[in-house]
Every structure is written in structure tokens, then in C-alpha cells.
Amino acid sequence: MKHLPTIFFSALLVCIMPLVSCNKNNDSQTTTKTKCVSCANGGACIHDTCSCPVGYEGTFCETLSRTKFLGNWTVFEKGSTSNAAQYEVSITTSANLSQITIINFNNFFISPIVADVHGDTIVIQNQQHNGKVTFGHGYIYTNATFGQFGALSLSYEVIDTATLRVDDYGVYSSDLSDPSSWNK
């Protein structure tokens, strides 16, 4: 019975410690960092939440953003000046952690097309290969048929540099074209 107060006090400390063990550090007046959260890949803990560097996402910045885009895709599309088509593309990694490369883009391009990844969005910056210029943007999503991150909608244009013919895939709604539909 002599040790009952000591045991009670020790048990109380064990219960209270987790509540106060997350001490905040004020490194500057605008940013509050917390010691209790460990952010991976150079992420910063701000107000108990990881702020991830470009190219990473997840609760603790543990996931490369581009990972969900990688793999083989079946493309279904009809451009504003081209016939309906179905073909395969492959998305692979790039040297830049926030980019991907698309192989067999538009069922035409021999050279890989590079796209920037921003979370669930990709952006194809204006680039020229094989006498054509292309650019566009799209987003990955989950659907019942293809599962988590199993579908991609991509709006883009291909412009022939010799004839200036534009083939639009959902960039402009006025030409009645639809975005390209990709499925894993």
C-alpha cells in the first residue's frame, strides 16, 4: 500500500506524456514546426501537417506523385481532324522526379513526350518532335471499372508544322472534340 501513490502518479504521467510530448518550436514568426511528425523526402512539418516538396505527396511525403501514372495504358480518342483510334501507350519515369515520359503518344510520336506531374494532374508543355508540336493537360482519377487511378482524361493538341493543321482532343469545346480517354 505504501507504493500505491507512486504507482498512481507513474500511471498518470504515462497517460499525460503523449499529450504534451509534441512541443512546438517557433523557428520563425510565420512557420511553426512540430517535432512529433516526421516528414520524408525533405518535407516540412508545418502546423502538424507535412508540406511536401515538388514531386512527393502523401501524409508524410512518402509517395512519389508520378507513381500513379506509370504503366501501360489503352487510349481511346477521336481528334477534331482525325478518325477514332484505339492504341497503347506506356508511361515511364524521367530523370526529373516530378516528370513522366509518354511513349507512343498520339500513336505517332517516336520520341517520348515529357509531362510535368502536379499531384493528380499532368501538364504537357509545348514541345516539338517529328515535325509536329504538341501540348496539353490531363488528370488521373478512380472509377469503378479500372479502380484507383485507373483512368486518365487528357486534353491536348497536335499541330503539323508543315501544314499548320491542328488536331484537337478536347482543348477547345467549339470544335466538338472530346478529351482523350486512357485506361489501365
What does this structure look like?
This protein has 184 residues and is mainly beta. The protein has one helix at 4-20, and strands spanning 24-26, 32-34, 44-46, 49-51, 56-57, 63-64, 71-77, 85-93, 99-103, 113-118, 121-129, 132-143, 147-160, 166-169, 180-183. The chain has 2 domains: 22-61, no CATH class; 66-183, Lipocalin (Beta Barrel). The chain is built from 1 helix and 15 strands. A hairpin with a 2-residue loop joins strand 11 (121-129) and strand 12 (132-143). The relative contact order is 0.12.
Q: What structural keywords apply?
A:
single chain, about 180 residues, mainly beta, Lipocalin, 2 domains, 8-stranded antiparallel beta barrel, two-stranded antiparallel sheet, 1 helix, about 10% helix, elongated
Percent helix, as a range, is under 10%
Mean pLDDT metric: 84
The proportion of residues in beta strands is over 45%
Along the chain, the helix and strand elements come as HEEEEEEEEEEEEEEE
Would you count the extended β strands for me?
Answer: 15
Low-confidence stretches: 3-34
End-to-end Cα distance? 68 Å
CATH topology of the largest domain: Lipocalin
What structural class do you assign from the helix and strand content? Answer: mainly beta
Indicate how many domains the architecture comprises.
Answer: 2
Just give the CATH class of the largest domain.
Mainly Beta
